[in-house]
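Listing S7. Sequence submitted for prediction.
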Amino acid sequence: MTIREYMKDNIVYLDGGLGTLLQAAGLKPGERPERWNITHKDEVVKIHCDYFDAGSNVVCANTFGANVLNFDEKELEEIIKNAIKNVRTAMKKSKSAQPKFVALDVSTIGRLLKPYGDFDFEDAISVFAKSVKLGEKYGADLIMIETMTDCYETKAAVIAAKENCDLPIFVSNAYGDDGKMMTGATPEVMISMLEGLGVDAIGVNCSLGPKALMPVVEKYLKCSSLPVLFKPNAGLPRVENGKTVFDVKAKSFATEVSRAVKKGVRLAGGCCGTTPEYICELVKKTNGILPKEIKQKNITWVSSYSHAVEFKNQPVLIGERINPTGKKRFKQALKENDIKYILNEGINQQEQGVHILDVNVGLPEIDEPTMLETCICELQTVTDLPLQIDTSDTTAMEKALRRYNGKAMVNSVNGKEESMRSVFPLVKKYGGVVVALTLDENGIPDTVQGRVEIAKKILAAAKEYGIDKKDIIFDTLAMTVSASDSAAMTTLGALKYIRNNLRCHTVLGVSNISFGLPNRDAVTSTFFALALENGLSGAIMNPYSYDMMKTYFAYRALRELDSSCLEYIDFASKIEVNSATVKVEKNNQNTYASDLQKAIIKGLKTEAAEITEKLLGEVDSLDIVNNEIIPALNIVGEGFEKKTVFLPQLLMSAESAGCAFEIIKSQMPGGENSDAKKCKFVIATVKGDIHDIGKNIVKLILENYGFDVIDLGKDVEPKTIADTIKKCGAPLLGLSALMTTTVPAMEETIKLVHKEIPDCKIVVGGAVLNKEYAEQIGADHYAADAMETVRYAEKITELV
């Protein structure tokens, strides 16, 4: 029996924590646990066996950090081979009779991917792929991708698994106490993306205890059509008699997790701090609970890295302006590779209130695949809106879909056999919501029935490729009414039938209806209203059209979609009408103190550098720093602290500020201005820990606030850290750790630094820490994120 077969009708019990058990067995601070697969086989086998005896069906091999960034390829192969063999040995030794499976454990590579970090997406896929191939080669039953904190890295790991093995893929992400992942993704983002990618089970692990993670799990159960897994920590860590312990005991843990099982969780286990005792209690507590049926949720949604947009009752606006058709200036931008112009078009449409951006760069004179991939990647650095990949070139479509961070909208497929054969495999592989045009080899039918029949044909073909109708949105093709009196009614009739009878969502490029007519906006907006009333789910439209936006807000008010008409009133009170266009100042989103501040806030790196260069001829460099750059960073930083801005936006703003700083430095004598620097700040990831994402984020933000950061890298010896502080005289030290097994190394470092440099203040952070735990290991301050580190550093600077 395979794990896929077993989990159809059974609750699957996973294992628990491994790191703390290895420490108890003698793993030293800073020692790589994966090497114990070879050097301490008996100890590793015993832990695996204890989990099987406790009732686990799935035990993860000791391969959490087993990848080519941490081990050379020869050693990596030996580690993975022995890791899987150790679980197989444990299976044979176990006295329990339940079905047993071994998972290749895959987790973060410890690098932030471009554009937010320095590691390329394809390189990440390659790293994961090498581990996956070895896992399948040596007999893993499934791939367990877990403790992932970044949407984009998660996608890279899944693609690597799909392209390099045929094993089931389980994916578990780590969420903070705000219900979001480190890079801002909500549960809905991960559910939509991972379902689209076609994994076998999804869920939540690590970070927090079962009670704290329950709201996230409930979102998964509400929205996911896949089996949901749950592996919480044993609460929060603390130090007791020199050892790390957790505050949720086995019986309490089992009680809380059993509640999740009753609600529908299909796969349950534990993470940090849990032991075979916890799994044993969980198995006992859930004995007799029948697995709940997993129902199809039929949610149609697309997502960016930060949020999902659902097609449901609320009309969805898709900005049409990133498209060369009829736009001379946009064509020029494409020919001249003027990405800055394209990015500003995206930002401006977002500020006008659209929910999705259409991206079409099709021009015969350019390399469309390369340009589309570039635009998709660059737009995702300046806007968090989901994107619609609009192209008839399937090479361009695949490149863009592969690189897209989230679940994209794809425009389009049609009823031609060639189109369906080309597009549906891409949608099946990468996920996406695809726009289906009701035309085929015979053209566009001029009857409602003809277009409906094509829609049915497309649905049947999509089903053959394993694509559900919730991921098909039909465009019944608005044709110009000036050329055919029946054009509008045919389009609306087909749209209404598909929405009400086929139960599929619909979209239209509404402006086509008025082509060739005077006062086009009047015709287009009236047609828009008719389409909405006939079941239109989304409109590809011009958000600068006053008539279109007026219709949108008025429709929502009349249709009970705008409580007390508040959004309509807000729209009406903040419009400036000029030549039939509209500019909406909504919540001051598009009001900036200066062009440079806008460039920094929106993450426009090239523009920030260009504006700074111009300003230097008129304004003193320190005035630019103090009156432009720092205030802009503060706006973004305060938004981050209030949870209205997320990590990718914070990082791109910091990058843009960095570009401005580089221009200033390059035009100063010696290329540097020591007077602008604040105090020195040493940072490092502690001995034994090779994950430096958090540290690198802190470094970037600190540098942009003027701190002189000395980055010692990852896996750094305590003595090296202390010696560096002595040498440079830094009053501040920042330490990072992701793994529970490396917290003792952090404590050792803190003790050494406090002993040898007592005036140095130490701030710590990382997924395994909290304020109480940080205090117990002797840290001066715990920072939950990069901005809190900056605030603490500024406070200390004032005292130095």
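Caption to Listing S7: primary sequence and predicted structure tokens for the chain studied. Residues 509 and 540 are 5 Å apart (CA to CA). The chain has four domains: 3-285, 300-544, 588-671, 678-799.
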